[in-house]
Write a structure and sequence with these properties.
Layout lengths: L1 H16 L3 H8 L3 H8 L2 H9 L17 H10 L3 H8 L3 H15 L9 H26 L9 H7 L2 H4 L2 H9 L5 H13 L1 E2 L6 E2 L6 H13 L2
Helix pairs in contact: 2-3, 2-5, 5-6, 5-7, 6-7, 7-8
């Protein structure tokens, strides 16, 4: 009896720390009707909008992280694209990024049939990254950068970017790297990292670097 009450208390504590636990549990059933019931709760909607638990680390090592990113991942794995789109209405930035990450992780799995809507969301994220990298070049090339002073007009007109032939400009753009693998590593750490019982640092479970660091320290100490 007491163990039952203790387990219930831990579950309640987890739901307080991670309000989206109820949503993630509903998504994991694979039943959309369960998800719609949870999404009607204002507390769930508020958490989707403000995304306060994205960087929160569970206090208990056995606790499961539940945030916008994990909920989107669960919806993609359960093939519930309409759930992702419903979440997108409340938080476009995080859900779009989470969708890209979920599809990035699944892109090598040919058994998963992806929704066109989810693919479109992921592509939108990539276009935003691309525009961040090349937007200034494109605007400058098409002379859509408004000079602050009249003397700058002539400078912009003869800028190398504006004078580069079309084919050469395309080649330049082809070398621009979106650093998707780096973004994926950062998101993986954000989603999976928790307090490590070995080194007391934030680590992805099973990837603690404490042992490797100790080996390096011993090697350095043995050097003359």
């Amino acid at each position: 009896m007491w163990s039952f009450l203790s387990g219930r208390s831990n579950s309640t504590l987890h739901s307080i720390d991670f309000p989206l636990q109820a949503l993630q549990d509903a998504i994991s059933t694979g039943n959309e009707s369960n998800v719609w019931k949870v999404l009607r709760q204002q507390r769930i909607r508020n958490e989707l909008i403000h995304s306060t638990t994205t960087h929160k680390v569970p206090r208990d090592a056995q606790q499961q992280k539940c945030n916008v990113f994990t909920c989107v991942q669960a919806a993609v794995q359960e093939n519930l694209p309409r759930v992702v789109l419903a979440m997108y209405r409340f938080n476009q930035d995080d859900v779009r990024l989470a969708t890209w990450y979920a599809l990035y992780r699944l892109k090598s799995d040919q058994k998963v049939k992806l929704s066109r809507d989810l693919i479109a969301l992921a592509q939108t994220q990539r276009r935003l990254w691309l525009w961040d990298r090349i937007g200034a070049l494109v605007l400058l090339r098409h002379r859509q950068v408004t000079p602050r002073r009249a003397s700058q007009r002539q400078v912009y007109a003869v800028h190398p970017v504006a004078l580069t032939p079309v084919e050469a400009f395309k080649i330049i753009l082809s070398f621009i790297d979106l650093h998707e693998s780096r973004e994926a590593r950062l998101l993986k750490f954000l989603i999976e990292a928790r307090q490590c019982p070995i080194c007391s640092r934030l680590c992805i479970p099973g990837h603690c670097k404490a042992g490797r660091l100790r080996k390096m320290e011993r090697r350095v100490s043995k050097r003359p």
